[in-house]
Amino acid sequence: VELTLTEPNRHFHRLLGKIEASILPLSGPGITSIDMASLAGAGPYCIEGYEKKRVILRINPHFPGHKGRMAFERIDLLQMSDEDAVHARIRGEVDFIFPAFAPPSEILAALEKSSQVIRDFGQTIFLSFLRTKTNSPWMSNKVHRERLASILRSIAQFPGMKNESVVLMGQGMGRLSQGPQATETGDVSDLPPLSLAAVDRKYTRHIVDALGAAGIKVKVTWVPDFNGLYAGPAIDCDAMIAWNDFCGEDPYISFYNALNPDRPLFPDNGDARRELKQIQQEMNSTKRDVAYQRLHEALLASFRVIPIYHYWMDAYAAQGLNISSIKGGVLWTLEL
Description:
Layout: H1 12-15, E1 45-51, E2 54-59, E3 74-78, H2 82-90, E4 96-97, H3 105-113, E5 115-128, H4 137-140, H5 142-152, E6 162-163, E7 194-199, H6 202-213, E8 218-223, E9 239-247, H7 252-258, H8 271-279, H9 285-301, E10 305-318, H10 330-333
Parallel strand pairs: 7-8, 7-9
Antiparallel strand pairs: 1-2, 2-3, 4-10, 5-9, 5-10, 6-10
């Protein structure tokens, strides 16, 4: 396969590792209904074998990005629940686990004692006024959105997550500026009703309950998964509760993911994507960080994107495992 780009992009090999770059059949179910685990993607490894709850990966000889960075010729991926994975790692039955949430405190000590801990991958949970129509009371009144932001930033923490005012876009979160401070909430009785789309999770219900307790009139369209936010009645809601991943040393992929026009997370009329395109062409890392910071501030200043929580997902590896090649976001490129 030969690919011809209309313009240079030094992150192109990383973009090929995204789920959007997966190889799909010419006919069959759409992307929202296809079995994601059976897709063939592009990246440092290729699929050698696939069966129920097991995928065998072999290093891809045609992927120039690894260049000796990848320490493993073969990787066996086993699908299991977080609970089963944690106990399997403690017993030494698997070399590496990447649970979606922090293990319970009563077994975390045993897990950390038996493993190397890799703190590598983070997410921000936020509310995005992505689809709000220009004539809606939420879109036309920034003060409404700012007061909503004040409520969201003051709600109780959810277990395993921390309140946050920055969308994870740079390494260690301190690399980019915090979001603007919202004013005090004040009287919310004049705030308009809010129609909200959200994936049905414990933390999203926690957020919705907090909004209701604060006096916000919320009508929620619950969907089973991320793709549901972009289909059916969810697309007519004022806003959605979504999340964006952070991984690696350069925030480009995080921005790119959030501004993807096919599944956008942040509102954008095209200006932000054009600015991101210019930033990735800047070779000076200091100037690039300044440009990323300006873009980040612009996205948050309108309160059309309101960060709520962030959390880090730690990985756990066997004590003797060479983990040098799976730091710095390579975990993400291995994701199926």
